[in-house]
Amino acid sequence: MKHAALALALLMGAFAGACGSATPPPETAADKDDFDGESSPGDDSATAGSESAKPAKSDKTAGKGKDAEADEGDEDEAPAKSTPIQATKFEADLKKIGINLKKIPELEKLPSAQKKKVMPLLQKALGYDTCQGCHAEGDFKKETRDMKVAREMWRHFVVPLRSESGGTLFCDSCHAGNEHVLNRKDKKALQAFMEEEYQNKLARTNKEDMECGTCHGDAMETKIIEKLWNIPE
Known about the structure:
Elements: H1 45-53, H2 68-72, H3 91-97, H4 112-126, H5 145-158, E1 161-163, H6 171-175, H7 187-199, E2 202-204, H8 212-216, H9 224-228
Antiparallel strand pairs: 1-2
């Protein structure tokens, strides 16, 4: 059962899309509002920002599911080689925002001020041009499938996993600024890649072994998003 950590392939999809540059913006009164990657009622600033940036993200990628099954059908967009695990470039930014990297909270539990500053890092790490990587255009409060997947990605990967040396795992650790990170044409090569990169080079914060069931459950469920996370396709 050495397919381990196929679920980390899911990181190619959908941590929350964000608005703005990777440099955290100054805190304002708007930081006091509720924010889950979306603007608060009466706050037009985030919407205005996304309006000015669009339509940089094409219709082909906007609103597309990010699970492994969907990506498997996108071989035309697959990289020539699968992207190896790497150290995140955003560790200093996360520290500056005030996130405890020793015990990272779930995304929805971050204070709104921190969450607003995390979003641009997510956007850049995934290579999205606009907030529409995850958010509905013009309506940041609308729940999208990608937003739900992003929260689960954070919950199941960013929170409980680290590099083998104990370093922070973040979106760019797998994505490196690209939405698609796995070449699926050679299945045997892909299996070997996942074993080497995702099983052997990642560790769990609870010190337990990194194995297939870490991501896929005891029954080795491949449709993690739909079957384990209960997010409809």
